[in-house]
C-alpha cells in the first residue's frame, strides 16, 4: 500500500544531552521505555537532523518554519506576528504585530512584568479594544495568562521598532523608537497605544477588585517582538498538500496558521506534561482523513527540559509512547518523528545539538536501528540531514516531487 | 602506486527503493550477486549521495551535470541543446536547440507523435536540410528512432519559446510563442521551419512508400525543449583533466560533449539491458590511456527501472558485475561507482532518494562496508555527500586539488 498521507510528529525540545544515570550516559529519551517508538524505528529509517544548521539552537518558531521547509533566515520577522496568529488574530499582509504582557505600573515604574500572572484579562482586553482610539485600525487580543497580542493595520507601517517592554522589573516603560526608516509611524502609534492603555486600565473595575484583594493591578501593556507578517508562500501552493496542525502551543499554532495549515483544537491539550496525548493522536489521525499532511506538536517535553527535570521529561516520553501504539500498522501514512530542537535539562534551555529523526512508511530503506534515541539514530541510514530537507524528502517518499531535468 | 587517473562509473538510475522479496526488503542491486562490486566496496570507502539535494529527483541530464561538478540550477537550460549535442551537432555559444520528433499529421491534427516509431529517417532529414530555407542558419539532424535535433544559429536568438509539439495525439501543432522578450525572432523562425517541413515531407518518396505499406507517414516535425547552449566552463579548464565519455544514451553523450569530454563510441552499446558492457569497460580502460578522466555510463539499469522490472534490473547488475572483474587491481586509477538518481521499479520513474557511492583507489580511507547496495553504503565512511562534491573529492584523492589558504 502506498503511503500517501504525511504525519509529521514534533516532540518539542525532545532531544537532550546525556547525563550520567546509574553509571551510564543517558538522555530522558534513551532512558525511557518507548516500545512503540522503537518498533517504528526498527521498521523505518533513522538519522540525525540539524533543524537549522549544526550548533545553532533553533527557537520553536524558527525550528518549525524550517521543518515545514521554509528558510527562517529569509522569512522570519520576529515573534509578534506568530504570537498574534497563535492568539487567533487573522494577521494579514502589511500588518505589524507585537507580543504583549499585562503588567503592573506603580509610581512610573513597572514593578511586575506579569501583573501577578493574572489570568482574568477578558474585561481588560475588551476595554482596550473599545476605549483606545488610534490613527490606524488595531486588534488587541488576550492570549493565555498575562499574555496578549496587538496588531496594527494600515498604510505606511514598518515593523522595525524597539520594544516598550523594559524586560526587567523596576524600570520605566520605554518609549518605542524606529530602528529603520519607514517605521516612524509605527513607533508613534505604539507609544500612543501604550499611553492610552494605561489610562483605560488604571481605574478599571477589574483592577479595583484586584487591589482590594492585595493583587497587583494589570494597569499597563508592555509590547515587544514587533514585526511585519512574514511573506510566506502558502503550504498548499508550495507542496500541493492540504495541511492541518494539531498543537497546543501558541507559537506552533501561530507559525502553522501563517503557513496556511488548518488549526485543529484538541480538548485537554495543555502544552504541558499533563496534556492529553491520546486525544491529540486521535485528532491527528482524524485530521488525516480530510488533509494530506498533519503536523502534530507535543510540547510537554520542552517544558520538562526548561524545568530541568530529567525524570519528568523521561516519564512523559513513556506516556507519549503509549499513545503512539495506534500509529503502528498505519499503512497509508508516511510518519516522520523528530524534534524541533534539543532542550537540555542540564541547562534548562535550547541547544544546537542535532535531533533524532525516524521516517516510517512504504518504500523507505529500512536500516538496522531499532531504538529511537539520540545515540542510536546517529548510526541510522538517513545519515545527518537538515531540517529544510525534510519536506522534500517526505514529498518524494509520497511520490509527489517533480523531477528537475529529463 | 598513486592513483592518478579517474574512472567515474554511473549506473544510470541504478539505485532503487526496497520491495519485499522472499520476506526480506531488497532492491534490485541488493538482491543481485555482485562479487566484484562487493570487493571494490570492501577495499574502498562507501557512502550515500544526494545527486542534487535530498528528496529532489534528478533527471539524467541534471544528474550528470551535478556529478561532473556543475550546478544544474545555474547552468541547465533545458534538454534541446543536450539532445542536439548528443545527436552529434557541434552546438556553439548563442545557438538555440530543440528536441524534435518525426510525427504523423492528418487533417490538420497530429495522429501519431512518433510516426509509428519510424526508423528510416535519413532521407527525410536530408530533404529538410536541403529544401527548407530560413532567415538564420540551421542544422537538422536525425537521432535514434523517430527523434531528431534542430539548431538555429544567428544573431538575436533567444531560447525562451513554447513548444510546437502538442505533447498528445489528436491535437493540432501549436504555434510557438516567445516566453520572454528577445525570443520573438526564434518563435517566428521556428513556426516557419515547422510549416516548411510539412511541405517538404508530405510528398516525400519515403512517405509515399510508407503509405503504400499502411505505415503512418512521417510528414511533420514537432519541436520541444527549446534552450540556448548552457554557458559551461570546459571540463579541462575547470579541473585540468583531459576527459572522455563512454556512453550510449544521447542525453549523457550530449551533456558530456557540452562539458568538453571526448565521446568514445562503443560497438554494441545500446543503452538497454542488452548492451555490450564488456566492450564498454574495455573502451573505458583504453580511453584512460590517453585521458585523465573517463565517465562511463551504463543506461540499462534505468531502462529496467522505467520498465518496472525488478528481475531485469537485478539480473543486469550481475552482467555488469561480471564485466567489472577487470576493474580489480587497477592500481593507477581512482574508481568511483555510483548512480545519477534512483529509478524506482515500484513507480517506474526517478525518485529523490540518495544513491550509493563507492570510491576505490590508493589513499582512500577504507571502511567496514563489504557490499555495494543502498542499505550497506548508508553506514559507510563517506557519510552522506552531495553530487556536486564528488569531483572535488576525486581531484583531491588524485592529488590535484589546490589548497585554499596557506
TrEMBL record, chains A, B:
GO biological process terms on file: glycolytic process
**Catalysed reactions, semicolon-separated:** (2R)-2-phosphoglycerate = (2R)-3-phosphoglycerate
Which keywords appear in this protein's UniProt record, sorted alphabetically? Glycolysis, Isomerase
* Record-level Gene Ontology MF annotations: metal ion binding; phosphoglycerate mutase activity
Q: Does the keyword Isomerase apply?
A: yes
Q: Which InterPro entries match?
A: Alkaline_phosphatase_core_sf (IPR017850), ApgAM_prokaryotes (IPR023665), Metalloenzyme (IPR006124), Pglycerate_mutase_ApgM (IPR004456)
Top-level class of the enzyme under EC nomenclature = isomerase
Q: Pinpoint the Metalloenzyme domain residues.
A: 5-396
Q: Which domain of life is it from?
A: Archaea
Q: What is its EC number?
A: 5.4.2.12
Q: In which pathway does it act?
A: Carbohydrate degradation; glycolysis; pyruvate from D-glyceraldehyde 3-phosphate: step 3/5
Known function: Catalyzes the interconversion of 2-phosphoglycerate and 3-phosphoglycerate.
Q: Which family does it belong to?
A: Belongs to the BPG-independent phosphoglycerate mutase family. A-PGAM subfamily.
Q: What is the name attached to this protein's record?
A: 2,3-bisphosphoglycerate-independent phosphoglycerate mutase
What species is this protein from? Candidatus Methanolliviera hydrocarbonicum
Amino acid at each position: 500500500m502506498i503511503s500517501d498521507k504525511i504525519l509529521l510528529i514534533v516532540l518539542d525540545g525532545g532531544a537532550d544531552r546525556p547525563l550520567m544515570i546509574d553509571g551510564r550516559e543517558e538522555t530522558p529519551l534513551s532512558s525511557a521505555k518507548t516500545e512503540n517508538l522503537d518498533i517504528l524505528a526498527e521498521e523505518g529509517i533513522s538519522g540525525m537532523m540539524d533543524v537549522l544548521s549544526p550548533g545553532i539552537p533553533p527557537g520553536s518558531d524558527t525550528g518549525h518554519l524550517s521543518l515545514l521547509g521554509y528558510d527562517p533566515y529569509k522569512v522570519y520577522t520576529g515573534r509578534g506576528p506568530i504570537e498574534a496568529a497563535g492568539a487567533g488574530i487573522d494577521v494579514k499582509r502589511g500588518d505589524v504585530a507585537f507580543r504583549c504582557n499585562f503588567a503592573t505600573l506603580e509610581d512610573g515604574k513597572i514593578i511586575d512584568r506579569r501583573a501577578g500572572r493574572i489570568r482574568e484579562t477578558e474585561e481588560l482586553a475588551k476595554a482596550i479594544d473599545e476605549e483606545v482610539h488610534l490613527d490606524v485600525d488595531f486588534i488587541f487580543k488576550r492570549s493565555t495568562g498575562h499574555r496578549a497580542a496587538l496588531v496594527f493595520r494600515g498604510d505606511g507601517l514598518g515593523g522595525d521598532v524597539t520594544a516598550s517592554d523594559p524586560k526587567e522589573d523596576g524600570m520605566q516603560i520605554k518609549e518605542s523608537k524606529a530602528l529603520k526608516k519607514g517605521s516612524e509611524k509605527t513607533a508613534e502609534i505604539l507609544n500612543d497605544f501604550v499611553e492610552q492603555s494605561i489610562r483605560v486600565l488604571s481605574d478599571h473595575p477589574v483592577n479595583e477588585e484586584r487591589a482590594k484583594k492585595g493583587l497587583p493591578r494589570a494597569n499597563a501593556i508592555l509590547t515587544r517582538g514587533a514585526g511585519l507578517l512574514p511573506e510566506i508562500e502558502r503550504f498548499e501552493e508550495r507542496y500541493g498538500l492540504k495541511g492541518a496542525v494539531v498543537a497546543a502551543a501558541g507559537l506552533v499554532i501561530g507559525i502553522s496558521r501563517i503557513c496556511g495549515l488548518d488549526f485543529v483544537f484538541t480538548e485537554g491539550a495543555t502544552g504541558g506534561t499533563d496534556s492529553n496525548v491520546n486525544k491529540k493522536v486521535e485528532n491527528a489521525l482524524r485530521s488525516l482523513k480530510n488533509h494530506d499532511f498533519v503536523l502534530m506538536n507535543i510540547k510537554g517535553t520542552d517544558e520538562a527540559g526548561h524545568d530541568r527535570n530529567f525524570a519528568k521529561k523521561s516519564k512523559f516520553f513513556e506516556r507519549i509512547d503509549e499513545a503512539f501504539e495506534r500509529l503502528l500498522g498505519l499503512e497509508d501514512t508516511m510518519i516522520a518523528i523528530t524534534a524541533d530542537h534539543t532542550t537540555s535539562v542540564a541547562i534548562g534551555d535550547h541547544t544546537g545539538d542535532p535531533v533524532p529523526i525516524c521516517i516510517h512508511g512504504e518504500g523507505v530503506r529500512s536500516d538496522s536501528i531499532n531504538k529511537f534515541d539520540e545515540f542510536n539514530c546517529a548510526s541510522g541510514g538517513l545519515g545527518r540531514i537538515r531540517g529544510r530537507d525534510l519536506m522534500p524528502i517526505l514529498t518524494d517518499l509520497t511520490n509527489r516531487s517533480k523531477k528537475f531535468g529529463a
